[in-house]
Amino acid sequence: MAVSEDARFLTLGPEVASRIQSREFVLLSYMALAGTLLSAALTKEARVELALAIPYIALASSLIGMHHDLLIGAISDFMKEISKNTPGPTWHHDPHFLPRGLRYRTIRDIGTGFFMIFTVATSLFVNKEHILGGHAKTALPCVLWWGGLLCSLGVIAVMLITWGSGILQILLIIWRSTIRLT
User: Fold this and answer.
1) pLDDT tens digits for 46-75?
2) How many whole angstroms separate alpha carbon 178 and alpha carbon 8?
3) How far apart are CA 96 and CA 74, in angstroms?
4) What is the largest CA-CA distance in the chain?
């Protein structure tokens, strides 16, 4: 039984929406958990190590978000291929719709990046005693601090890769639309 292009297109829309919702749920969960851990760590000196979990959670959250972004992009590319001969304006082929949506998405990416970098940096800062002295250098918190620093670099790398692929997609769409206009 053959499936029409329209049917394939219509079934992929909810999948994209579901992935967007899942990605946002992961982000909101990270925000709630990071805020809770920082609050607990800053209210009592004996609990400051709780904040060391934040860089690890940030890296996991950013990787899950990137996974959803990549799948959204792959599904969107397939939907673009299906809709290329559709008359009238389309999300993927009109030079005004998709690039504008991707530019608006950049606002979200900047806010997310700021929050993740701020919470990770704060968690490492409040635990700086584990590397500056006062505690044994081989203690588990010291190891977790250095691992957290590596995770924070991983978070930045994931954000740059994800953001860079979005910028590249915008430039390709604009370039292709200018070729069609000439």
Assistant:
1) 788 889 999 999 999 999 999 998 888 888
2) 29
3) 21
4) 71
What's the CA gap between 152 and 95, in Å, rounded? 36
User: Per-residue pLDDT for 42 more than 80?
Assistant: yes
| pLDDT tens-place string over residues 87-146 | 776 766 666 777 777 778 788 888 999 999 999 999 999 988 877 776 555 578 888 999
Buried b or exposed e, range 53-91, using 16+ CB within 10 angstroms: bbbbbbbebbebbbebbeebeeebeebeebeeeeeeeee
> In the prediction, which pLDDT does 136 show?
54
- For residue 121, give the amino acid letter: A
Neighbours of 95 (CB within 10 A): 14
Cα 125 to Cα 78, 144, 170: the distances in Å are: 45, 13, 37
Burial call 155-178: b when 16+ CB within 10 Å, e when fewer = bbebbeebbeebeebbeebeeeee
Distances (CA, A) of 78 to 13, 72, 163: 11, 10, 21
Q: How far is CA 30 from CA 15, 42, 94, in A?
A: 23, 18, 35
Q: What is the mean pLDDT of the chain?
A: 82
Nearest to 168 by CA among 91, 38, 77: 77
